[in-house]
Amino acid sequence: MNPTLPGPRSKVQWSADRGLVFVERTLEFVLPGDLATRTGGYAYDRAIIAGLRSLGWRVSVHELEDSFPFPTADALADARSVFAALPDQALVVVDGLAFGAMPGIAESMASRLRLVGLVHHPLALESGLEDHQRLELQFGERRALSAARAVIVTSKATAAGLRDYDVPAARITVIEPGTVSAPVAAGSGSTTLSLLCVASLSTRKGHDILFLALSNLAGHDWHLTCVGGEPQTGNVLHRMQAQLESYGIADRVTFAGTGDDESVASAYAVADVFVLPTRYEGYGMVVAEALARGLPVVSTRTGAIPELVGEHAGLVVPTNDVNALAAALERLFVEPALLPRLRQGALAGRERLPRWEDSCARLSRLLERVI
Q1: Which of 26, 48, 69, 317 gives 20 to 30 Å between its CA and that of 282?
Q2: Contact 343, 322 (CB under 8 A)
């Protein structure tokens, strides 16, 4: 091979003072915890890392301790060591779950490293926070983002939300999650309406709202399957089961756990309706996953969910509104033509969903500009 030619990982770029130069497409990706964790944020990270590698990027992954966004002293010390070991002018994408919680490190490394923040949603918008925690996260994330040369967000809604963080619009780029093609859900084939919720068992996802809404529909024939893991602390599953017992509907709800790719795909395949009562989303990847399978959606007006569902593929209600959610679900039972119509809308919308190939190509172009 002629050593003067660029390799597959390089891109030719024009420099005013040096003419044509070869830009090495090397990326350091920093995130808290295990990249294999089964949540939407980690799924996004995995997909863009794989996509960038397929485009010729050399991506190194650095996994920090999992105590973020409230890191221990040891976790911060470990993170500082990771950043200190990176070469000067390295291009570094930092997942927002960690980035916004270590403003001191971001500020100290801003001049030495090319920092890019990846914000799935602002940390302070997580549900269940104490007021002092919310303020601490908001202040810290504002400082961290000011040290970033570029900020990636996953939806227009999140981009708009960063106005409160004083991030110039010119530094924000929306890279929506892509969607993996999937077979059309066959449905339950039963007179019992099979409802599916895929979401971590956290306060923000709104399971408590869904359970209360369903308790008002006990006279209808339905069964709910919840796929998703619970946080490391708090014994959330026990509290949810107690809530269902108090409503008298515990035998109509199945907690399937986190599951693997095959079991989650099986849950989608036999569902009739996808339900996500979330209080807040940066995007709403599981809604896109449901629509990719032709599943009608009942969800809330947050993140990109209203745009994904549109007027024909499901029903969208305000967040934190039990009565509106119960009314939307009841329509599925009392309006016989509604569910088939929504299913046709979901099937028609499958081809309009964003693709990972496009998302990763756009991200690659952004990172080249940062270099």
Answers
A1: 26
A2: no
